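re: that complex we talked abt at group meeting.

here r the seqs, copy pasted straight from the sheet so there may be weird spacing, ignore it
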Amino acid sequence: MRKIYHRIIQISGNVITIEADNVANGELAEVRSERGISLAQVIRLQGKRVSLQVFAGSRGIATDSEVRFLGRPMRLSGSEALLGRIFTGNGSPRDNGAALSDNMIDIGGPSVNPANRIIPRNMIRTGLPMIDVFNTLVESQKLPIFSVAGEPYNELLARIAMQAEVDIIVLGGMGLKYDDYLFFRNTLDAHGALSRAVMFVHTASDPIVECLLVPDLALAAAEYFATEHNKRVLVLLSDMTNFCDSLKEIAITMEQIPSNRGYPGDLYSQLAARYEKAVDFENAGSITILAVTTMPGDDVTHPVPDNTGYITEGQFYLVNGRIEPFGSLSRLKQQVNDSTRADHRSVMDTMIRLYAEFKETLEKQSMGFRMSEWDRKLLKYGALFETRMMDLSVNIPLEEALDLGWKTLAECFEPEDTGVNTQTLQEFWPKK
Amino acid sequence: MSETKPTGKVTGINGNMVSVVFSQRVIQNEVAYVLTGDNERLKSELIRVRGHEADLQVFENTSGVKVGDPVEFSGELLSVELGPGLLTQVYDGLQNPLPELAKQAGYFLKRGLYVYPLDRERKWEFTPSAEVGQILSAGHSLGSVPEGIFKHQIMLPFAWNGEWKLTWIAEAGEYNIDKVVAKASQGGQEREVRMVQTWPVKIPISAYLEKLLPAEPLVTQTRLIDTFFPVAKGGTFCTPGPFGAGKTVLQHSLSQRSEVDIVIVAACGERAGEVVEILREFPHLDDPRTGRKLIDRTIIICNTSSMPVAAREASIYTSVTLAEYYRQMGLHVLLLADSTSRWAQALREVSGRLEEIPGEEAFPAYLESLVAGFYERAGLVRLPDGSQGSITICGAVSPAGGNFEEPVTQSTLKVVGSFLALSRDRANARRYPAIHPLESWSKYKSIVPEEQLRKARKMLREGDEVNQMMKVVGEEGTPISDFVVYLKSEFIDAVYLQQNTFDEVDSSCDAERQRLVFGKLLTVLEKNFSFNDKDEARSYFQRLRQNFIDWNYAPWQSDEFIKCEKRIDQALQKAQG
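got the structure back, here u go
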């Protein structure tokens, strides 16, 4: 029989402190107060003093509330029964199904040995030219959508998930508006994808500490399906900025020295521990992570997008309902775009470079300068590029998009204007 | 387990920091092991002593550790093993071979699992070179074994102070690394030399006669670096830049194409995927300089971002110690540390847990001296046998928000000899490598004559000024002479500064080719063109650019190469002077 502790000596934020013996770092406990039972996790030990973060928050906890240690860390049932289910941020069912208890696995497990990784090699087709042509998504990539409130980032996330050829979809929702949660559920349902999906959803009204567990739960489930069942898993995480804000809250409560705008110094390591779970295994499945990072104040140098950008393999900027070509980047595109079609890289580089020149011309035009012949070519090109490539409603396969790219270039420029090497031009420049 | 080793008991746990009470003597920076209830031995390093309590940074996840768990002190500083067989290896920050860990533990890393860095069984063919009776000191070669194309020197251990008399040396033959190959005595005390020795990572190996001024260029085959912002063998340089500016691609290019003997890649707190590329590709890529595979000259130290943070701090020291070991053999080593910012962040995390008074952006106040200490381990040295060896350090820096004013970039700039500033604007415009030609600087000597370089630099600067001006007065308000200056500067950028790393030919531009192309480029810059109007000027330069780019893509001295060169010459002659 495990000992029950009755004397809470400190309550501060969502962290309580008691005096106890023989407690392990990271261990779970149950805290029973008049408000009900909540899970809590040990986050610091100092002699006899044990600090726990209470998942449901400390509101209503009395100094004599009961604390009972469970002798185990946070776990998740690793079983196929997860499919089609919806859970809360502490792993209990959000739908009306039963709680699962088969094959409990630890969450937040160790990192994949780099020697066991393989070079990513499969393109994920999305039907969006801004992704397929310019910043190809690759299986096992970790990629966030950088955006601001109000942009259709969850819609974009859902659309990519529905079109991508993957076996299993795991959704981790952090601080989701209830509407967004329903949107995801209904979208999955409408596409018949609910039966191959698992959802861990923390909504904006749930206790903040539960938000912290969502990525670990989602990724533990993904690892289970990728390693035990050789599945290709797509993990959607929205919105990681809320996760970071929860980290900040706990760090401040624990009186840690903040590094930048109140965020803890280990923000980078915390984010990396999650994102680095994206992997392609040699003889098993893969995990691809698509996340949403909202940028407070549209500021990419804010600590959350900044640290994220250094960890992830690129990012998509979603601005005004379009994926911006500047700043958007897929670091893994080089792994796959040499084997799609011989002209893929030339089209990609040339079109973006000319679009950058178009932007400069646009600036000159807005200042009232006379447009040269070259400027007029660029203006025509820029307008075509925006409607044919950037619009999110465009939904065409890669090959069609490349042909459209050459067509657009030929409508606006002479071959030598483009800076493409002669050999490629001879092969691909549309014949009049 | 020897029973005389001091022990202690855990009294507190805060993240990866564990406090321990001890009763016997302990040593700052010694290695200790925390023994968990599940019989795991978690390696840690002692980093602070206060009274009878010591603070350990644990190189592993500390979940499950309890107050009262026993701790064992080893009495030895955090060290690496040095000996034949280091090349081609892939280690974590504590020198555990990752492929071996994978064999034992499967897909995931297992905490508390440590493996010998070097193969105990493998036999090496030893050829003695020293003679019995010879007086030797630390670092003197006793013999050698072949390791790939290198003669791996077996040296008198660096930790042996003073002069030693060789009393016995093994005959030529095949031995494993633990076999005694020599004995030496000093004042009646005799010690044994094996092919493997250990050295504490945080102390520089200094068994050389003197440090020399780096003078010889290190050719990286990247035009923008070798010509404009050169690096010297034994020098230091840094590549700060915001994310997405091409740091990683640049580092990969350096690791593949730099003309040095040995490359050590320290992937410190960065993405695992980037290391995997090196891991999987280098065994298949040919090294044109030696005819062997690239992996044969490479060591990878890989402590990626999701691996324990304390080991990340150690990984930088591990890699530079291995570099120093090979420098002692008279070899030229390039150490690529990606990224030193992650290392600095690891220091910050530790400092925060120790509750030290923070400096700027919560980095510890001693950040600068640690950064300087790291870069100072680079250098060109003269060895006891008269030969020279060098370590060149390239540190990638990942400044928060891409802002170079932050502490890590600033403390790095103070101690490096060359600064390659990566720019987001250039990356956005797909001008790769995105090294900014006006912000970067170098104190080393270029592969082209200084006065020629000055002309090209001047043209770049003036072109930029014209460009700024044009934004205000417009193209029509710019005189055609200024406009041609602008076109010339853009021309330098397009055909010389920009280089396609993914093209087999364009990616590798050796010194001879750079000098030739740069000479031709200067002819263009110095020529006085007379154009009727701006459109004519623009289209002339666009055609010339096309010819030059085709030239860059043509294999050295191939038919295509000669044809392209002719076409450029003709275009230059045709233009009105």
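couple things i noticed - The two ends of chain A are 85 Å apart (CA to CA). Chain A is about 35% helix and 25% strand.
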